[in-house]
Design brief:
single chain; alpha+beta; DNA-binding
Length: 347
DNA sequence: TCGCCTAACACATTTGAATAGC
DNA sequence: AGCTATTCAAATGTGTTAGGCG
């Protein structure tokens, strides 16, 4: 069960004018990424449709935990079989038409042009990024659903999985290891046969949720933070001595020694704990942090610059008889294909 | 030798079916 | 008969670790 946070939203008030700067309120280090995203997204603007007729607002939940991770340098494990994100992306949406159906999707976009490497105790750039892989969208399993449903509770993308397996056909989001990414939310209005201009499309990126994809954690502080906050990793708390192997072999000389630093940063942060506890199924309120300012960038309204989405929406536009269910099914089929068109921002 | 990746592992949580009680 | 609560096993999600690979 999800509950709305009681704290004020970190509103991203998305102006209808797509050219208006939206990154001015971001921390300076995000500005480049947001600007690049907007440049990429500025490929074209088509009919914005009903979805833009209102002030659609999106806010990332669990900000304090995200901020804690970001302060250290968020890392996300990617595996061949797919690994969930922690923290998971969870957003509150307002300003949708309650009686209109929408599809919510999420994908990952490159944060910058760099490849990274872990050098002793910090991340350093390590050459230029590899070509971005074709977009894989994670379609929220509740899609399509009425706007009132999306606005009723925060929308969690906790089932989104990341992989480095480019051959996977299971709808996982494919990433390159040692590259930095940021989540991007897509809100697509489902077609309304009665309104030819009612197919809206909005995108929101979340620079504060940027992370480096890794196959093994590099920063022990991140490992500790994950262990302290992820219930599935509870077995590694208490200096990791819960594990059988650790009990049997207490001394390990490895770069991965999260237990050693388990007390260096003190007990579980109350704010981080609170943020986590407010996660899935917990009825707690996350208090607002002082710097919890706007962080998501709004991409332009209108049809997506991503050719996949553009082509799909054109197809729907041409086929007014396309029902909502067929439309959503089409998205799912397309997103599961191996060979999607290259994105306009592929490098 | 180094950096990165993979698979197996132990442990904890989540999920869902089966059962009991009202 | 239908609903709710409880129990329990299976499935799933974690980080750890050793070893492979280029």
């Amino acid at each position: 069960m999800f509950l709305h946070e009681e704290r004020p939203y970190c509103d991203y008030s998305f102006p209808l004018n797509p050219q208006q700067s939206t990154y001015s309120s971001f921390p300076p280090e995000w500005k480049d990424a947001v600007l690049r995203s907007q440049c990429r997204d500025a490929a074209k603007v088509e009919a914005q449709g009903e979805i833009c007729a209102q002030q659609t607002r999106v806010s990332l939940q669990g900000r304090e935990l995200w901020d804690t991770f970001r302060g250290i340098g968020t890392e996300m494990i990617i595996t061949k079989a797919g690994r969930r994100m922690f923290p998971a992306c969870k957003v509150s949406v307002t300003g949708l038409n309650p009686k209109t159906k929408y599809v919510l999707m999420m994908d990952m976009v490159p944060f910058d042009d760099s490849k990274y490497k872990w050098n002793k105790d910090r991340w350093e750039t390590n050459g230029v990024t590899e070509p971005h892989l074709p977009n894989r969208f994670f379609i929220h399993p509740d899609s399509p659903a009425l706007g009132e449903r999306w606005m009723q509770y925060p929308v969690s993308f906790h089932k989104l999985k990341l992989t480095n397996n480019t051959l996977n056909t299971n709808g996982l989001v494919i990433l390159h290891s040692m590259h930095k990414y940021q989540p991007r939310l897509h809100i697509l209005q489902t077609p309304d046969p009665c309104g030819p201009h009612s197919r809206g499309y909005l995108r929101f990126t979340f620079p504060e949720a940027a992370f480096i994809a890794v196959t093994a954690y590099q920063n022990p502080q991140i490992t500790k933070l994950k262990i302290d906050n992820n219930p599935f990793a509870k077995g590694f708390r208490d200096h990791g001595l819960n594990g059988k192997r650790q009990r049997e072999r207490p001394v390990q000389n490895s770069r991965k020694q999260p237990a050693e630093s388990s007390h260096e940063t003190g007990p579980r942060s109350p704010t981080a704990a609170k943020a986590f506890d407010a996660g899935d199924g917990a009825d707690l309120t996350v208090s607002s942090s002082e710097d919890a300012c706007a962080s998501a960038s709004r991409a332009e309204g209108g049809a997506g610059p991503n050719p996949f989405i553009s082509a799909f929406m054109r197809r729907c536009a041409a086929d007014t008889a396309c029902g909502v269910e067929e439309w959503a099914e089409g998205i799912k089929l397309l997103s599961s294909q191996d060979t999607l068109p290259a994105t306009p921002y592929a490098r």
